[in-house]
Amino acid sequence: MTAAIPGWRIVLELDIVPELTAEFEKIWTEVGTSVSADPANLGQWLLRDAVQSNIYYVISDWTDEAEFRRFEGSERHLRHRELLHPYRRGGSMKSMAVVSHLPGERG
Questions:
Q1: Structural fold of domain 8-97
Q2: 41 with 33: CB under 8 angstroms?
Q3: For 4-49, how does the pLDDT look when each residue is reduced to its tens digit (9 = 90+)?
Q4: CB 62: neighbour CB atoms within 10 A?
Q5: Can you give the C-alpha Rg of the chain in angstroms?
Q6: Overall pTM > 0.85
Q7: Rounded Cα distance, 103 and 107, in Å
Q8: What is the Cα–Cα distance from 97 to 5, expressed in whole angstroms?
């Protein structure tokens, strides 16, 4: 049986300047800890594409859309974007409601 759970998921696709990927990962981790400290943030992941090593994905889970939008408009978020902008060549964002979750065997 699937369990309906509340939540809001953000998926960012980031095209990073190839020569700056290592520095981008370092800066993302530094600013990411501040995002994870927000009470409405349920966790986030940084993933690198297996084929195009300069393409990254950020998956970020939030308690609900309103709380994510609050954070998105905050000074803290704007500062993060400023710090990461020099590494980006482009990207996109998808936002979605979490409908259900099927936990794996290991939890």
A1: Alpha-Beta Plaits (3.30.70)
A2: no
A3: 466 999 999 999 999 999 999 999 999 888 899 999 999 999 999 9
A4: 26
A5: 15
A6: yes
A7: 6
A8: 10
Domain ranges of the chain: 8-97
pLDDT at 107 over 70: no
Task: Give 14's contacts (C-beta < 8 A, 6+ positions apart).
Answer: 55, 56, 57, 58, 88, 90, 91
Walk across the sheet containing 41-48 and list its strands. 41-48, 55-62, 8-16, 88-97
Q: Which residue has the tokens 């710090």?
A: 83
Dist CA 86 CA 14 (whole Å)? 12
